[in-house]
Amino acid sequence: MTLPHSPWLLAATAGAVTATAIAVAYQPFLALTAAVASMVISLLLSERSRLPRLFLITLGALLTGYAFLGRGFAYLRAPPVFVGEVVLGFGLFALAVGGGLGSALRSPVGWLLVLFALDGALRTGPYLREYGLTALRDAAIWGYGAFALMVAGSVFRSRCFWSVIQHYSRWVGWFVLWAPLAFVFQMLARDWLPVVWQGSFAVTLPSLRAGEVAVHLGGAGCFLALGLHRFATPRMTVPTALKEWVWWSACLSGAFLAATKARGALLAILAAFVLVLLFGPLHTWGKPVAASVVLAGVLFALNVVVRTPTPREISLDQFVVNLRSVMSVRAEQFSEESRAWRLEWWGKIIDYTLWGEYFWKGKGFGVNLADEDGFQVTADHSLRSPHNSHLTILARMGVPGFAMWVLLQGAFALSLVRAYFRARRARQDWWAHVNLWILAYWTAFIVNGMFDVFLEGPQGGIWFWCLFGFGIAALETQKRERRAWAIEQRGASLSYLESLSRSQPLPAARR
Questions:
Q1: Which tens digit of pLDDT belongs to each residue from 435-494?
Q2: Is residue 275 assigned to a domain?
Q3: Which residues pair with 202 in a beta bridge?
Q4: CA 498, CA 487: separation in Å to the nearest integer?
Q5: Which residues contact 264 (CB under 8 A, 6 or more apart)?
Q6: pLDDT at residue number 28
Q7: Torsion angle of the four alpha carbons 161, 169, 180, 448, in this order, in degrees rounded to the nearest 10
Q8: What is residue 71's predicted lDDT score, i.e. its pLDDT?
């Protein structure tokens, strides 16, 4: 065996062995954790070229857990670190070692995201000493934006945009079948479901909120309506056609259940569907329209009414009540009181930011806005933000931060709209449908964020920023394809001109 000749390497090796021996003697658990972590990091470093793809696989599992199991899955943790933060750390490691950040920042939208995050950091840093980890939890609404850069960079680095679409195509069928079943389990079998403890209270698995399910059903329905699942699996067979009827029946049933439980859920689904209905192909809406008519007829004929622990029941009448309350028509007392409470709080936030002392800086990340503004309704003070993610940004970051948020989201949406019409003019139907689907999915997130504490948590926030990053990857991939096509066309034109010059003799010079 040949010993290393460098004295510094010998000293480092001896120090590491000594530290490990001491750690094993006094803190065996920490020593084992450090050893396992070191082996995992060494293994990942040896496979650095595969890190972006490994991260995307891990992220896919995380997003599936959030979508299928909701808040209960989000509470899985090794205190004080939650499962989403573990994946966030892995993603940052993959981005730093495997590369891809430069690709993500090719887009102007990526730089706007960085500027928004820097402003969020300025609104968080001064409150860390007073509020500690709570300030970081509140800052998740901008901090989770790191997922957008990680997704965009990883998709670029691993060149797997088409693969992501294919995997989502398979995922959609399972989710639309699961969504209505999950609501039934939560209502009828709550006492038999497994639980995850968060502090002093238990959260069931699954624990899905209506708005979260509605957003994903809106994205799934738009994906099916645009026929993107056929692009991923081009050969349509009779069983696949039958599956479409089953998928649409399950999707609309889940959407109905979500819409009866929350007005934001109803608006999120409608916004996504209306956007695709206006700009997408009309011939694809035959199955969803027929399934909707059948579902409405069954509910009306059987007069289905399901009581829930909340004041809202599952029924066709409750669906109409929610629709009327959204349209500002006086509805039942519970809906009217809930709407008035929100509007009063939102009005106060607008007053002390747009016209008050918190115009420039907001109240920062860490303070409990419900307590500070006088709208706390929970005994354990668990409510921290208004039921509007956009006004949360206004209250915590002030008008400049809110303006950056609007600019960021507006630039993203406008980029997708331009890419959609550009693809239509070039007769690139697949790209046009992808752009429209991402835009509709994003719209569902934005709309539901107006009525719920949605983008502040991991179930909504991480999903939203991952879709945002995937949209950046879609935009930049299209630019790359157009650039490659232009270069190819230029090369073909030059080759053609050269062939003409060789085939035709030059005219003789005049004597």
A1: 999 999 999 999 999 888 889 889 999 999 999 999 999 999 888 887 776 676 666 555
A2: yes
A3: 197
A4: 16
A5: 210, 211, 214, 447, 448, 450, 451, 452, 454
A6: 55
A7: 30
A8: 86
In this prediction, residues 189-196 reach a mean pLDDT of: 74
pLDDT tens, residue by residue, 52-94 = 888 899 999 999 999 999 888 888 877 677 888 889 988 888 8
Supply the DSSP string of 484-501, one letter for each residue. HHHHHHHHHHHHHHHHHH
Are the CB atoms for 150 and 91 separated by under 8 Å?
A: yes
The C-alpha atoms of residue 87 and residue 320 are separated, in whole angstroms, by 41
Counting every residue, how long is the chain? 511
Residue 71 lies in a domain: yes
Are the C-beta atoms of 223 and 275 separated by less than 8 Å? no
Query: What is the C-alpha end-to-end distance of the chain, expressed in Å?
Result: 87
Burial of 332 (0-12, 13-18, 19+ CB in 10 A): middle
- Only one residue has tokens 């294919």, namely 166
Q: How far apart, in whole angstroms, are the C-alpha atoms of residue 419 and residue 415?
A: 6
Is the peptide bond between 7 and the residue preceding it cis, with omega within 30 degrees of 0? Answer: no
Q: What confidence score (pLDDT) does residue 441 get?
A: 96
Q: Which domain holds residue 444?
A: 49-190+202-495
Give domain status of residue 331, yes or no: yes
Q: How far apart are CA 414 and CA 158, in angstroms?
A: 27
Cα angle 299, 305, 310; round to 5? 130
Query: Is the Cβ–Cβ distance between 463 and 66 less than 8 Å?
Result: yes
By mean pLDDT, which of 144-153, 157-166, 309-318, 414-423 is the weakest? 309-318
Q: Greater confidence, 116 or 312?
A: 116
Which ranges constitute the DSSP H helices of 280-388? 286-302, 316-326, 333-354, 369-373
What is the rounded distance in angstroms from the CA atom of residue 260 to the CA atom of residue 320? 8
In this structure, what token pair is assigned to residue 116? 């928004």
- Give the separation between CA 260 and CA 279, rounded to whole angstroms: 27
Give a yes or no: residue 44 inside a domain: no
In the Cβ-directed half-sphere of 207, how many Cα atoms lie within 13 Å?
A: 18
Sign of CA dihedral 394, 399, 401, 405: positive
Triad 412, 417, 419: Cα angle to 5°: 95
pLDDT at 200: 62
Kindly indicate the confidence band of residue 112, based on its pLDDT and cuts at 50, 70 and 90: very high
What are φ and ψ of residue 42, in 5° steps? -60, -40
Contact 401, 123 (CB under 8 A): yes
Contact 236, 87 (CB under 8 A): no
Kindly report, residue by residue over 211-249, the tens digit of the pLDDT.
899 999 999 999 998 988 877 565 555 557 778 888 888
Domain count, the chain: 1
Q: Which strand (E) or helix (H) includes residue 77?
A: strand 77-78
Contacting residues for 114 by C-beta, under 8 A, at least 6 apart: 105, 149
